[in-house]
Design goal:
InterPro entries: FEMABX. One of its GO terms (biological process) is cell wall macromolecule biosynthetic process. One of its GO terms (molecular function) is aminoacyltransferase activity. It is built from four helices and two strands. A two-stranded parallel ribbon has the order 1-2. It has 123 residues and is mostly helical. The longest helix has 23 residues. It folds into two domains: 62 residues, no CATH class; 29 residues.
Length: 123
């Protein structure tokens, strides 16, 4: 919270929780409490990002987040502007390496004991 503005940085729920609208109820409760907080001085509650053509992976958030707002406020997206280009380049390379290692770990079995053996037909 800062002055009359409150911000909710993250919100997520499991599928079963979504079906019961638990997160909706929690957010409604938060809004009511923020309205009472400090004598009603909180007048704005920012739920942060929603999907757009710039970030279609967030489109799933739109249904949830827009049911609590009369209007959507569009803001310019953040951009990285590297000042120390060599350092930034090393971070990009390191990130790609981490992603590759994670993918390799997921692709291979944890041990030989966990590998399923094919069934042998006896005649």
């Amino acid at each position: 919270m800062s002055g009359s503005r409150a911000t909710r940085y993250y919100a997520a729920s499991a599928t079963a929780t979504m079906r019961r609208h638990v997160t909706d109820k929690l957010l409604y409760f938060e809004c009511c409490e923020l309205g009472r907080f400090r004598g009603g001085s909180v007048t704005s509650y920012d739920l942060m990002a929603i999907g757009s053509s710039l970030c279609p992976s967030l489109l799933g958030l739109n249904e949830f987040k827009t049911k609590f707002a009369r209007e959507v406020t569009h803001v310019a997206p953040d951009r990285d502007y590297p000042i120390r280009k060599a350092f930034y380049r090393s971070l990009v390379v390191a990130r790609k390496a981490v992603v590759r290692l994670r993918d390799l770990r997921r692709a291979r079995p944890a041990s030989r004991l966990e590998v399923a053996r094919p069934a042998v037909a006896h005649s």
